[in-house]
Amino acid sequence: MIRIELPATGDEIAKLSVGDRVLMDGTIYTGRDAALPKLVKALKAGEEPINVMGAAIMHTAVSPAGIAPTSSNKEDIEESIPYLASRGVLVHIGKGKLGDETVRALKEAGAVFIVTPPTAALLTSRVKSSRCRL
């Protein structure tokens, strides 16, 4: 198990290999089809609703029912990944297969895509707090 303290550093991410099991400690932002394009738009407008440098973003929505990953290859989500990676988001967490262009963009930015299994009950039990930023 490889432990990563968030916000992550490029050196920590560079040490990861396909198949590594990762334990992250720190703030993990969440967003999905509606939120991630809003974040991209805000960053392009010069706003910074969150500090994206070294950040981890999980492709999901948090609700009273719990938290679970959503498919990262949904158009609005996958289209946001290259830009967010170029701005400093180093860890993208979700499920599904990403397109070749997105994978190239992640490599160029020194970022990674971490696939999480369907573990809604476990993830929900680990949420310490949640609030809406956008």
Automatic annotation (TrEMBL):
<protein>
    <submittedName>
        <fullName>Fumarate hydratase, class I</fullName>
    </submittedName>
</protein>
<comment type="similarity">
    <text>Belongs to the class-I fumarase family.</text>
</comment>
<keyword id="KW-0456">Lyase</keyword>
<dbReference type="Pfam" id="PF05683">
    <property type="entry name" value="Fumerase_C"/>
</dbReference>
<feature type="domain" description="Fe-S hydro-lyase tartrate dehydratase beta-type catalytic">
    <location>
        <begin position="4"/>
        <end position="127"/>
    </location>
</feature>
<dbReference type="InterPro" id="IPR004647">
    <property type="entry name" value="Fe-S_hydro-lyase_TtdB-typ_cat"/>
</dbReference>
<dbReference type="InterPro" id="IPR036660">
    <property type="entry name" value="Fe-S_hydroAse_TtdB_cat_sf"/>
</dbReference>
<dbReference type="GO" id="GO:0016836">
    <property type="term" value="F:hydro-lyase activity"/>
</dbReference>
